[in-house]
Amino acid sequence: MFDIDRYFEHLGYTGGRERSADNLRELHKKHMMTVPFDNSRNAPKGLAIWDDVDAGVDAFHEALIVEGRGGICHEHSGLFRGALLELGYDVSIVSAGVRGANDQFGPDLEHMMNVVRLDGEQWLVDVGFAGPSFIEPVRISPEVQSQYGFDYRVVESGDYLVLERRTRAKDWHAVYRFTLTERKLTEWKAIASGENDDPVWHWAGEMIAAGTLIYGRAYDNGQLLLVGRRYLRAEDGQEHVRVLAKTDEYQAVIRNVLLQDA
After folding, report:
1. Strand 222-227 vs strand 230-235: parallel, antiparallel, or unpaired?
2. 197 is catalytic
3. Mean pLDDT to the nearest integer, 148-160
4. Which residue is catalytic, options 28, 73, 74, 108?
5. pLDDT of 73-131, one tens digit each?
6. Predicted pLDDT at 84
7. Do the Cβ atoms of 165 and 225 come closer than 8 Å?
8. 37 within 8 A of 215, measured Cβ to Cβ
9. Which domains does the chain have, with CATH numbers?
10. Catalytic residue check, 52
11. Annotated catalytic residue 111
12. Contact 116/98 with Cβ under 8 angstroms?
């Protein structure tokens, strides 16, 4: 069963429980620092990663908090959404298509996150994106918002809103695009069951099934991301990337990201 006290204890969250932007920011950051992204259990599943999308907050709490494992987007999103709903926040599920290496966006249901409406503003809340992205929620606004040396904004592009990020050394680039259309978990279940026969999903599933492992976690002023052997550390507005050729170094980084050797 989901236990918000145990969840807070696991995160080391001692902030208030009233609805506020400050509490939302702190809780978001604590989750990202404490519960890692880890697709190693799901990488071989292909489109079957969506089979348990509706497993519920109790199941996600058991896996990520009680068992102390990392998870993927819908597990993180579902757990965090359950906590916010218990605290009385106004939360909805939205989806995004992630920008790929070719600068093209994936399908609209490629990624799951949440939107929180609070004091007349809308906040993009996403604790389940491997990154690098943002550590604290981002207001859905074209106004530039800075976090730990990185800048963020949400701009309109045709029928979509696009989350953009900027390092100190580079211009703006898109992270993903989304709409504010509220999504239902049954939409992802349709993908898992094959009812959604968009060939893009088959291509994406094959890529996932190829076994690329992804690990990610935030720390106090930055983020760690390991995609295959490519290791990225984002800190103070800068990104440092290297390839981990040695197996012992690769394993050490995984342990660090998963908080097993931090």
Report:
1. antiparallel
2. no
3. 97
4. 73
5. 999 999 999 999 999 999 999 999 999 878 889 889 989 999 999 999 999 999 999 88
6. 98
7. no
8. yes
9. 4-201+210-257 (3.30.2140.20)
10. no
11. yes
12. no
